[in-house]
Design goal:
The structure holds 2 protein chains of 2 kinds. Helix content of chain A is 73%, strand content 1%. Chain A is an all-alpha fold. Classes of the chains: A mainly alpha, B mainly alpha.
Chain lengths: 493, 192
Amino acid sequence: MDLLLTSLSALARIDVAIALLIGSVGGVVIGAIPGVGPAIAIAILLPATFAMEPIVGLTLLLGVYGSSMYGGAIPAILVNTPGTAVNALTTYDGFPMTKRGEATRALSLAFGASFCGAIISIIALISLSPVLAAVAPMFGSREIFLAALLGMVLVVVTHRGQALAAGALLCLGIFINTIGLESIRYTQRFTFEQTWLASGIDLIVVVLGLFALSQAFLLLVGEDEDNKPPALVGRLFDGLKEVLRMPKIVIPSAGFGVIMGMIPGVGEFLAQFFSYSLARKTSGNGENFGKGAPEGLVASEAANNAVPAAAMIPLLALGIPGEALTAMMLSVFYVHNVIPGPQLFTNDFDFVLSLYLALIALNVLAFVFLLGATRWLTKVVLIPNRFLGMIILILSFVGVYSLRNSMIDCAIAAAFGMFGLMLKRLNLPIVPIILGMVLGGIMEVKFRTSMARVENIFEFIERPVAQVLFGIIVIVLVAHIYSLFRAKKSEDV
Amino acid sequence: MIQTNEIGSKSNQAQRVEDYFSSPYSSALVWFGVCTFLVAVFLASQLGTQAKFFDGMPIEKQPGLWSAIGIVGMLIFGFFQMLQFWFHRNGLQAPGFVAEVLTWLRAGEYVLWFMAYVYLVPIVGYLPVTVGFLMLMTWRLGYRSRAHFAFAVLTGVLIVLVFKSFLQVKIPGGVTYEYLPDAVRSFFILYL
């Protein structure tokens, strides 16, 4: 009880409350603008949060992360354009419902499903906390190394059909992270005697280039789309009641979101895909999926909104980010010398609980905001794409330049922006580069500290948690190779 | 199937997980695969000189170990990726190499805009450059209505107020602010 009160008092501070409000409302608005998305917004805001206390900065970023998918459903349903990448499946049934004249019902179902998915996810996490607090201390250097390795393996194999490209880009991320002065013998790595490379390439510069600047370039070289959202008639609250009458869809979908969110390197895409496929089989309305089935819409929205809360688990408990957004949040921790990992869960659990409570609050705020402001939000869809690209370009400057007022950082970010543009145009993944940089850094340190404590490589997996992680890695790899053989066989047939 | 589910694009209802992660196989993709592999080969050729490996030092402490892991991974994955792109080249569905490179070059113009903006902010000042750039770019992009220009000015002012005045991000005051009257100089340097 004392713990809960301490956590609540942390949230009751005016600066935290303002951050929560701005984050959740801002996240919804950002999500509603096709072409922006939470990754760009978080990348731009990141340096600004370094001057804030960790709880304030993280609340702001969590607000953007957790609420953007609510907003992303709006253009997905109204104009068949997902506001954030993870709202892609929402278009399948949302847009046909709009064409049928059921736009308000579709939006209301999406908001209700998102809210339920998020709340189920947070309740699951709070319930799991004692288990996590007990398990987290079992993770030493070896286990964290193996968990990071598992994250890398998963990020490669989950890019089905692009695993080779994902692997190459992941390794590029590992390599980029090594550039500069290393901290053991203070030798230079791949600096080519350039002084500006000696301090390495900052993760935030890369993130801003790959996510924000590349998107700005992509929009600027593209064409404006003629989006005309239909007028909304009726009440938006009714969808929540309808969603509550679909527990067989909502609970498994949120469950997928929780599980996929917790596994590093997997994320929203597979969560919503699995939940959508399951709902198609179990709903009894499978033949209408893709043609405006409410169950399909509910499954996809409940799953993707359950992910953000769950994605905080590997970050907080092990210090391992599962995807690009939590990788960015990790830098907020590092800047404030708060090291996420097992100690955080055991020694600063009030901080962790504050974040969970912040997640509940931001979902309530986002939901209430949408009930009142959706009609106004449909107008942001009208902002021309290229105009938006121009604004992202100007905003990216804030993110990069405010780090250390360096023009070189801006040039590096612009170079990564061009590289990101090429990857986006060719539909190749960007996230493996970021995860390679972050997980590569973690693995380098943990490998060094682990090897100092073992006689030979086999002692690396002598502890139970390490054995489990190693076993999962082997199973994932074997299953992936097996699925490749099966796919090849069926192609030949 | 060409994946067009990225944000800002119309959805095309991919039916399998693979459809989310499939690339529009164009000759640009083949060239991209070849170029990235060649970069990996170049980096591998520099491994001996650009990263240190000390005799007798345990492998985990070798400074060059993780650079080598990254490069070897790029070589292996990059090689097979290149082959994959090559064997799929017959199913070309997207514009070819030249059209794609021209698009990349068109984006180069905005890199120049961005770098000019970065160069001018510490000289002229954040507020005037931001507003000026947004107006110029609005014109460059072909928007001519007063509403667009008004929106550009409003956006510029809002960006400066939020980030510099309110969030106090580290953006230096412009050199030209030094010529302002004493009464407003500090205010401009600190907040605009």
